[in-house]
Amino acid sequence: MQQNGQIMMTYRCSAACRHCLVMAAPQQDASRVSIERAVEYGLDFARLGRAVIIAGGEALLFYDHVLKMVRALRDVGVPVAFVESNGSWCASDERVRERLSRLQEAGMEGMYFSVDCWHQEFIPAQRVWRGIRIAREMFGPDRVYPMGIGLEEARQAEQAAGDDEKRRWAAGNGIHFIGRAAPDLAPLVEPVPLADLCAQDCRADLDIDALPEIQVDPFGFVRPDWCPGVNLGNTHRERLADLARTRRVQETPLLRGLAERGPASLLPLAKSLGITPEPAYASKCHLCFDLRRQMVKAMPQEFGPPHVYRVAPGRSGRPLLNKSD
Ligand code: SF4
User: Fold this and answer.
1) 20 CA to centre of ligand 1 in angstroms
2) What distances in angstroms separate CA 298 from CA 66, 123, 152, one per listed residue?
3) How far is CA 253 from CA 10, 28, 62, 247, in A?
4) Is 324 a residue whose pLDDT tops 50?
5) Whose alpha carbon is nearest atom 8 of ligand 1?
6) Domain count, the chain
7) By three-state DSSP, how is residue 135 classified?
8) What is the spatial distance between Cα 41 and Cα 35, in angstroms, rounded to a whole number?
């Protein structure tokens, strides 16, 4: 299995999907990972045996910056496996061909397009399909993710409107109820009593060496990509290659507690800060997120940045783009 190192270039996005773990949205600020930092991260991810990918938010809102980043990484011998995108920019065949061909020349090896019922509340199926179709022609079908998706599947995602359908989907597909998924999607599933959640650990979630993807954000915070705000540390103080390891979890009492006892390990800390948990949550991650949201001001290095918790509500049913485009 290929393991990825994700340079999360920005919290800004062209959409505000209801399942977004990082509260990415058009309202988020435009802070970006610098080219110099990206090169440092690329070299460190390569040392860790991870393929480099660029994501966001919507990284391609800053197309010229991504282009420079891909080129700079190629120049130090670290190819970008793919850029993740929601396809909001794929307004015409000409535009897609022009943008992808320049990225390909710069050294990018593939593309990833998000296709699901949450993204398609904002991005027309026809638009993201245009990106997938042309990317497959240019990079080959085995370098464009997700593989095997067709226009029909994109249209089905677009048509999967209505909370009944999404409730079934959310319950059956392991949604992580953190970021915007906490306020927007947790009400769609049966709450689980606090005592049951306190019996769950996070050993597998924090076994960093085995995780498919590690993420570094625009402010230097390093974390498993499923746990935004659970920081292994910050690259402004230590090298990414030293942070993104299971050893780091074992050596850090707060992280070791989370791994061994799950979010229950945060409760004494929360109590000391005057925070009382709810009697039930949608999942252990929902509990973890809710406690961290209230603790981040007191513990910005451990649980930051505030962008992960800053509520930028989803806008269900209100597409940002004109579907006739
Ligand atoms: S409970 Fe917290 S640490 Fe555990 S997997 Fe969920 S977000 Fe990560």
Assistant:
1) 15
2) 34, 37, 48
3) 30, 32, 38, 12
4) no
5) 227
6) 1
7) helix
8) 10
